[in-house]
Each structure stands twice: as C-alpha cells, then as structure tokens.
Amino acid sequence: MESNNSLEDHKLNHYILHKANTRGHANHGWLESYHTFSFANYQNEDRINFGVLRVLNDDRVNQGMGFGKHPHDNMEIISIPLEGDLEHQDSMGNTTVIKEGDIQVMSAGTGIFHSEKNKNNNQFVKFLQIWIYPNKKNVTPRYDQISLDLKDRHNKLQQILSPNPDDEGVWIHQDAWFHIGKFDKEFSSSYQLKKSGNGIYAFVLKGDFTVGNIHLNERDGLGIWNRKSIHINATSEGAEILLMEVPMEL
C-alpha cells in the first residue's frame, strides 16, 4: 500500500497521451501500418515528433512481401522485431535476418539504401520501425544488430539502446536510451532518466499498465517530460512496455 504522498509523487503533470485507436493507419494489402507520428499519407500537425523521436511505426508485413530498396540519410533507424523473421539488405553489403529478441540499428548518415522483407512464406512479420534525429549529421553510415536474452527483461527493464558503444544494447548518435520490460501482474518498477532535459516516451507492446497516474492499454503511447523518474505498474499478466528516453530539443 502506497502513502498518499507517494501517490502524489507519481502524478504526471506534463504529458501527452496517444491512444492506440487514434494513430494513423495505412493498409496496402501486403503491409498494414500504424503511425504514432506523421508519416507518408498520415499527416497530423499535432503529431510530428516527440523531441528527437520522429517516427514510431507499428508494421505487419504479409508472407514473402516487403519494402523494396529505398534511401535514407541523416537519421538513426531502429528496428525491433515482435513476431516472425525480417530479412534486411543494404548498400553497405549487409544481408541478415532479425527476429524477436534482436535489435537492429542503422546510422543513415551521408546516405544508404536498404530493403526489408518478410523472410517466411507461412507467417506474418511484425516489427516496430523507429526514427531518431541524430546529434551528428553526415556521419559515415553504419549497421549493427544484436540478439538479447528475453529472460533479462522479466520483471525488470532491459536496456536495448544507448549513446555508448561499450554499454548494453546497440548504440546511436544521440543521447537516447531504450529499455523493454515484461512484467507479472501488479509488478511495479521505476525508471530514472539518465540525462537532464530528456523526456520519455512509453509504448505498450502487450497488456495494460499504469505509468504515473495514467492508465495505458496495448499499443497506447505516452510522452512525458519535466520528470526525473517515472513509476510503472503492470495491471495485466505478461504486460510488456518499451521506454524511449530522448532529448526534447531538436
């Protein structure tokens, strides 16, 4: 049982809530995509970005289908597979497959081309594609991916991304930290922001949570700023959440 003081401490005063059913939606037949922020044909002047977080796309690609080769530059691009196998090829010579538990990152820098395809002909592939504005422009393009132990996110926050090559997870050219946690029902945790002036965007992958005093359901997003820490409580069994700490200044 928490005291009234601690409950008051958890109250969020500076936040923006994006319910799952308010996201942009595109169904191209082979691809179904939900856009938290403006992307392609979904344009919403109130949803351009959250700090340096520019794109959060929730994609499902049909069997054997995918994105043809296309260009990017001066963006940090993170892919997080949720189900199935995603085949990646790029102009740096990389050909690889990523699956649940893997994290992929590309620093587009001066420019790259890449393609993404559902590796399998008998199941969907589902993944998040996230774009972050970098803190350095025109860097040499780079690619990296790692496989993480899913047990390391049970009832704790597993770091999957940071600004530091020697730290846990992949790294990017930005003062950002990503964590994923999968929690038993009524398990609570807290997250301390790592850099002053950063905000945090919470995205529910599965189940239900309260973050501070805000109730969240599957695929809801919550952007929070002017906080040094947040309190997270899982309100359903096996609830899973992605936390993205990012600078608020572009």
TrEMBL record:
One protein family per Pfam: Pirin_C_2
CDD domains on file: cupin_Yhhw_N
Molecular function, one GO term: metal ion binding
Pirin N-terminal domain location: 23-132
Cofactor(s), names only, from the UniProt record: Fe cation
This protein's record includes keyword Metal-binding: yes
Keywords from the named record: Iron, Metal-binding
Cell wall biogenesis/degradation is among the record's keywords: no
Name the UniProt record assigns to this protein: Pirin family protein
Lineage, top ranks: Bacteria, Pseudomonadati, Bacteroidota, Flavobacteriia, Flavobacteriales
Gene3D superfamilies with a match to the protein in the record: Jelly Rolls
